[in-house]
Write a structure and sequence with these properties.
2 copies of one chain form a homodimer. By secondary structure, chain A is an alpha/beta fold. Chain A folds into 2 domains: 283 residues, Rossmann fold, CATH 3.40.50.620; 76 residues, no CATH class. Helices cover 50% and strands 11% of the residues of chain A. In chain A, helix 5 crosses helix 7 and helix 11 packs across helix 15. The interface between A and B is medium-sized, with 25 and 25 residues. Chains A, B: It is found in: Cytoplasm. Chains A, B: This is tRNA(Met) cytidine acetate ligase. Chains A, B: Its main location: cytoplasm. Chains A, B: Belongs to the TmcAL family.
Chain lengths: 378, 378
Amino acid sequence: MQAVGMIAEFNPFHSGHAFALAKARNLTHADVVVVVMSGNYVQRGEPAIFDKWVRAEAALTHGADIVIELPVTGAVQAADQFAQAGVSALAALHVSALAFGTEHPELDYLDLARQLVATDITDPGFADYTQTYATQLNAAYAKVAGITQTDPNFMLGLSYAKAVLALQVPMQLYPFGRQGVGHDDQKIKANLASASAVRQHLREGEPVTGIVPADLISVYAEQPQYGWSQFFPWLKYRLQTADLAELRQVATMAEGLEYRFTQQIDGAHDMTEFLHRVKSKRYTYARLRRLALAITLNMTTAAVTKARHLPQLHVLGFTPTGRQYLRTVKHHLAYPLLTRVSADMLAPYGVLAMTHRADRLITAIGGVEQNYGRPPLM
Amino acid sequence: MQAVGMIAEFNPFHSGHAFALAKARNLTHADVVVVVMSGNYVQRGEPAIFDKWVRAEAALTHGADIVIELPVTGAVQAADQFAQAGVSALAALHVSALAFGTEHPELDYLDLARQLVATDITDPGFADYTQTYATQLNAAYAKVAGITQTDPNFMLGLSYAKAVLALQVPMQLYPFGRQGVGHDDQKIKANLASASAVRQHLREGEPVTGIVPADLISVYAEQPQYGWSQFFPWLKYRLQTADLAELRQVATMAEGLEYRFTQQIDGAHDMTEFLHRVKSKRYTYARLRRLALAITLNMTTAAVTKARHLPQLHVLGFTPTGRQYLRTVKHHLAYPLLTRVSADMLAPYGVLAMTHRADRLITAIGGVEQNYGRPPLM
């Protein structure tokens, strides 16, 4: 069976995602579409608006055949680490084609990545404290490979290509335009509202008709929503009581931010206010938000390292076609395939300990168990 | 000037406390009554119902001349450690008389303590896992010194005596009956409702007329109240996200309780329910509540050790007589006398870092700054 992979967040799943899944299938003539999807926390540093099961189900009923969880240790990371976690999961599942939407489908991403790798500036640790890391990275890219684009999906595509090179996995890239082509351009474009706009509509209780597949509208209306408004009190408490040494153990902590965070938290009443207080020229909002989330989840460097050394493929669901594919590959997988989560895995030293730690907060808010004993969606 | 000391919590200050302060003064013919009072957290493992400034002010207007804060690292401890923290603060202030109410004022506490120390059973580390530490201690006391009393104030008096011996400080003990004597027995007895009963009345909005000095009734009515209902969500969050290794660093943690606590928290909706779930024959409710509070405050063994090595005398307030006394002793004090708290002291490595950590939560709830820049009450 021919498989194509996608790395996604579906936060939440909307019409543009359905279009992308169909595009990936058509472009590669694949029999099966395998998605590695962020679990309950996403790359921009916040809980996904709906839990991972709701989002996986939406994907499975709109074009995906298999949904595998991208664990929090891989999802709440800068683009390069996020991409590596996704690519390595797909490769472990013997998927050798990766499709992704981008503003620039005409470029050769692997070739660009090779130029960057050859000049060794993929992770330069820039020392200019007056600019964000992203700004400096873009400048270096422009210098080395003539890359002057900074569109987010283009940058993510480049991260996928770099991950393929770094991991040395056989993976062909299939970039595609994010807008539709042909006669119904207009209509599809209208449907391609960003996930961010969909979230805003949902949070404010406004209708999402036309931008979300019709059958999902009533599903979304009934689901508990998650966001920083619920997590901020925990962040505040944690910053007020944590030891500096403990904060330094949190993944993605950078020198000095532990002081800045603990000093600025007292007067902040919500996440927006807090981020404004800690913002500097050196760090983007996304970077700071991810760090704040890592603190709230107590996602330590040790937990991230452990997850990298003991990768798991937690199956959230599959279609009959997806099941068939899993049967063909399941005996020669690089990582364990988890179809039912046991108490052992969730225990403090279990392989899913960090996922459990993070997901307990989702359960505490929404009352829905996220791991223990939950079978894959079929 | 002749000084008498008391170690107290005033949670909250009531008529019985006014009686005790007067009794201490009369019994010792003291010019000045020095109180070492628990700060915002008390020995039974919870926040005091009113903050330390409200309670200090009540004491200063009803018989105390000086109120010094017993820091959280000394207050939220078993009786022996609580007593040591209090006795050492009084001794540092050159107070050599300690008065305390007890069910058995006729006994010689120092003599009893000497018998216990001589037989080396003051901290026996009992190995019977089917009984609480307190029960086993009482049995040992009965065997060694014929002590069959287990009344709480008697036991605390014994802890004071043991602290005096352990610290080798010159301190005379003045036990007195907790009930009044003479013709107005009846009336005083009626006024001696326990602090626990007063708290219950206050929490339920019931009148405290007659059991609290009349002028305090309106004061109490206007103050924010603190309790486990506000702290429980923090405990729950912390237990759901803490690393076991982090929990093991919490002061008074005992082998195995970190598992029990993290396992039992998910289904608990309030502190009472949680305590029922974790209760065993081995530990008293007070012991478990203190541990839960230490976890919530992130009061680590390191923080307690540091506080013991760098003791401070934080002055919450004084009367003119109290001020006169402080003037006579301030140049030869064993510990620093803090009359105004600076930002340095509250900083992460400052001498009041743990106090600040704990008190930030009080400020987060009640909106009243507890340390920075607050002068002593006069």
